[in-house]
Write a structure and sequence with these properties.
The structure is a single chain. A 4-stranded parallel β-sheet has the order 2-1-3-4, with helices on both faces. It has one domain: Rossmann fold (3-Layer(aba) Sandwich). The protein is built from 6 helices and 4 strands. It is of the alpha/beta class. Helix 2 packs across helix 3. 43% of the residues lie in helices and 16% in strands.
Length: 157
């Protein structure tokens, strides 16, 4: 089986940080892929990208859009979302019960003196090891330094 991830989050919820951590851990040399596609390129878009970032929070619609592609090619689709409850930027409550949806709270990826970036990456890494059964753990573990480097470089731009 192949895994595909849609990182779906509202603007202002730390989604850029999260998607760069995801790429750093799993596909460190690829640029972030935004989820604005045209129908005629959808098959190629999803089969060529492990992770897609979007602000479209309609997970049911994403599942429907991609079902033909992923069933035919035997892909497993997962969603990783960030939420910021104090700003009312959350996903629909029904998605919390979906087995293929992981919600990460903004506070869990907000760098502070007591939560340094290295710990944020480790925490995300641990959540992924539990959430994504198809991802070989050594692939995620070995790229931890790449995730840190990617975030540092992101901040330098």
């Amino acid at each position: 089986m192949n895994t595909r991830i849609i990182q779906a989050s509202h603007i202002g919820t730390g989604s850029t940080l999260l998607v760069n951590i995801l790429y750093g851990l799993m596909d460190p040399h690829r640029p972030v892929t935004q989820g604005k596609i045209h129908n005629m390129h959808r098959d190629k878009f999803f089969t060529e990208n492990l992770i897609v970032k979007t602000n479209n929070m309609n997970i049911d619609k994403w599942i429907k859009r991609t079902s033909r592609i992923f069933q035919r090619a035997e892909y497993d689709l997962y969603f990783i979302c960030t939420e910021r409850r104090n700003k009312n930027r959350t996903i629909d409550n029904k998605y919390h019960s979906y087995e293929n949806v992981l919600c990460i709270q903004y506070e869990d990826i907000l760098e502070t003196c007591s939560l340094p970036l290295e710990d944020i990456i480790t925490n995300i890494q641990q959540k992924l090891l539990i959430f994504l059964p198809d991802i070989h753990s050594s692939d995620i573990i070995k790229n931890k330094e790449m995730a840190l480097s990617r975030i540092i470089n992101m901040d330098d731009v």
